[in-house]
From TrEMBL:
It is found in: Cell membrane. NCBIfam families: PRK07948.1. Belongs to the CPA3 antiporters (TC 2.A.63) subunit F family. PANTHER family: NA(+)/H(+) ANTIPORTER SUBUNIT F1, NA(+)_H(+) ANTIPORTER SUBUNIT F. The chain crosses the membrane at residues 33-53, 60-82. This is Cation antiporter subunit. It is a multi-pass membrane protein.
């Protein structure tokens, strides 16, 4: 059973690394916002795997709080997001 938890942890770390790359290199702000939301979701998944591994349920309230914070933050950011401006070349 420990092998399953190690595989889950490696997959979560790999997903976080790929998401961090998208956060840094995102072509626009919407890609970066989705990457931040994905990192919050990966944190929730990591806490859930840790809770299952240790069989300690004290982190469930933190998981719920982080999930609600991520959801409300995503809604607020997408509601008040200013669109990116693109500079178009002028014809010569």
């Amino acid at each position: 059973m420990t092998t399953v938890f190690v595989i889950c942890a490696v997959a979560l770390v790999l997903a976080a690394a790929i998401t961090s790359f998208r956060l840094v290199r995102g072509p626009n702000s919407l890609d970066r916002l989705v990457a931040v939301d994905m990192l919050v979701a990966l944190s929730v998944c990591g806490l859930a795997v840790w809770t299952a591994f240790t069989r300690d349920t004290t982190l469930i309230s933190a998981i719920v709080a982080l999930t609600l914070l991520g959801f409300i933050g995503s809604i607020a950011i997408t509601r008040y997001r200013v669109p990116d401006t693109t500079v178009e070349e002028e014809p010569t």
